[in-house]
Amino acid sequence: MAGSGIPQTTIEILRKYDFHIQKKYGQNFLVDTGVLDRIVEAAEIGREDCVLEIGPGLGTMTRCLAERAGRVAAVEIDRNLIPILEETLSGYDNITLINNDILKVDLDGIAGEMNGGRPVKVVANLPYYITTPIIMKLLESRAPLQSITVMVQKEVADRMQAGPGTKDYGALSLAVQYYARPEIVASVPPNCFIPRPNVESAVIRLTGYREPPVQVRDEAEFFALIRAAFNQRRKTLTNALCNAQGLHIPKERTAQALCRLGLEPTVRGEALTLEQFAALAEELQERQCGSQEPIS
């Protein structure tokens, strides 16, 4: 997704540049100024802030950000949008345009070059087909990101915020909540975009933790355990971990670890909290110390 202005202005810009919306980039331009204001307000942008915007599109949200922030780095993958952005943003001297794929961008480099290594705030209207990889890149990078305020498909926002025992709870919920505190701040209907998407949207703010809320020995093994638990979410945790490719943890070993945590051997992964997954990973790693059998 990418930001733009009111419907008529958006249409005029598209016609002026003979710009054809690219489905491969998930381009749906936001044309509701109220929603734009809500995104910027939720991001709590001030004059001291440096903002990283992903997918500036036609530049209207970029302008809103530039009017409030000290610096804005706008990363746009579509090179055909760069000439449009250079014109629509020509009145601002605090915007840096970067024509690149956000998944290939050096986030530490942007923070270092544009903000002296201090934390930056991310604001984006994300393409729905690649939302999760972008979110995980931002979180896993460990770059100095103070907060991430993004428009995403409502279903994905619900999954990020979901808790144990709910239908939306899964590996994405746990991954996001390990790195940040999620909060849905607005729901956005399809008629706020050109062209209209087929799904509801939502604005979610992720406030990064200085330290994760749980401590784990090995993050890769921890998340491998979580993925295995939800790849077969209708199975018990003992069966899911036993059957998981790359794990193959014996049922007895998992059952014993669960028992030590006060959990039934028939429990499913969807019932465990982030803290319980961390404790389970610790138990399994403790019991395999001195053994040649890894858990991932």
Low-confidence stretches: 1-5, 290-296
* Biggest beta sheet summary: 7 strands, mixed
Determine the structural class based on helices, strands and strand pairing. Answer: alpha/beta
In whole angstroms, how far apart are the ends? 36 Å
Tell me the strand order in the biggest sheet.
Answer: 5-4-3-6-7-10-8
Helix percentage: 25-40%
Q: Would you mind describing this structure in some detail?
A:
The longest helix is centred in the last third of the chain and has 15 residues. The chain is elongated. It has two domains: about 210 residues, 3-Layer(aba) Sandwich (Rossmann fold), CATH 3.40.50; about 70 residues, rRNA adenine dimethylase, C-terminal domain (Helicase, Ruva Protein, domain 3), CATH 1.10.8.100. It is an alpha/beta fold and about 300 residues long. It starts with a strand and ends in an 8-residue tail after the last helix. Helix 4 links the parallel strand 4 and strand 5.
Which characteristics define this entry?
7-stranded mixed β-sheet; Helicase, Ruva Protein, domain 3; 296 residues; 40% helix; disordered N terminus; 3-stranded mixed β-sheet; disordered C terminus
